[in-house]
Design a protein that fits this description.
alpha/beta; 285 residues; hydrolase activity; 2 domains; globular; Rossmann fold; AB_hydrolase_1; AB_hydrolase_fold; 8-stranded mixed beta sheet; Alpha/beta hydrolase
């Protein structure tokens, strides 16, 4: 079997420098761009390996991985323009794109703003709140997460975040009245390390609360896929995919596993092989 080559590149400078990787030869056909937010390129290596027959692009979103860090909030518009700059730098025309989690929201923003950048758009479990029936409750939770992060630091905020993303169902009005989870439950310290560069919280509130351009997405026609994991139940990100699909007027597409099943690691087992088979089916439809 031929060993795949991976080359690393940078577009932009300083705080706007974005690092991306290319697996394979860009001259062989339409590249596949895989990304998330805040997950960086390393989280998509296993999924990329399922596509040895085509060029695969991964990247580190703004504020993550090999890019510059910071403390200011990052918007979906900034992320979308960063992806646009990477696609322009590839110089090979439109790409097939798979975005998961926050990356799915950023991909939808990119597709609405730069539809010529993409051939097929697969948005997997975008945690987008505006079209949900509990949008106000979700906004309140995000505001509380931002406050907790600013005042108490990473451990307490992450503990609340994990509890929230695992919540299965519509978020009730009294959700924030429950006791805050102990960070130790998740192997984290409650002590404030004074670091405020965590890209997860820098991406909030924009990735969660920014409205989706339904009209622009509807114009993509059958190029658009809204995907959710069969094991994700009624968690917010899976509900976000179904809500956007309903607003656009298409059926959501089922994928195996749950939110992060494209990546396998000891604490969070996944099924990258099965996930890759399903992604290939969707791209080849």
């Amino acid at each position: 079997m031929t060993e795949l080559t991976i080359s690393t590149h940078v577009v932009g400078e300083g705080q706007d420098a974005i690092t991306y990787d290319v697996q394979g030869d860009l001259s062989t056909g339409v590249p596949l761009f895989l990304f998330g937010a805040p997950m960086d390129a390393s989280g998509f290596r296993q999924l990329a390996e399922q596509f040895p027959d085509r060029a695969v692009v991964t990247y580190d979103p703004r504020g993550t991985g090999r890019n510059a860090t910071g403390v200011a909030d990052i918007t979906t518009a900034e992320h979308a323009e960063d992806v646009h700059r990477v696609i322009e730098a590839l110089g090979v025309g439109p790409v097939d794109a798979f975005g998961s989690s926050g990356g799915a929201v950023n991909l939808l923003t990119l597709a609405a703003r730069h539809p010529a950048d993409v051939r097929t758009v697969v948005a997997h479990e975008p945690p987008s709140a505006p079209l949900l029936p509990d949008a106000d409750e979700v906004r309140a939770v995000i505001s509380d997460l931002k406050r907790t992060y600013a005042e108490e630091g990473n451990g307490p905020a992450m503990a609340k975040f994990i509890g929230f993303v695992m919540y299965d169902g519509v978020v009730p009005a009294g959700y924030l009245e429950q006791p805050a989870p102990d960070p130790a439950m998740f192997g984290m310290s409650a002590e404030d390390d004074r670091d405020r560069t965590n890209p997860l919280f820098r991406n909030m509130p924009s990735i969660i609360v920014d409205p989706v351009d339904v009209d622009a997405l509807r114009g993509l026609g059958d190029r658009l896929v809204l995907a959710y994991g069969v094991e994700s139940g009624q968690t917010m990100a899976a509900r976000g995919a179904r809500a956007i699909a309903a607003a656009v007027g298409i059926e959501p597409t089922e994928f195996p596993g749950s939110h992060g099943s494209f990546h396998d690691e000891p604490m969070y087992p996944g099924i990258p092989v099965e996930f890759g088979v399903r992604l290939r089916e969707v791209l080849d439809r």
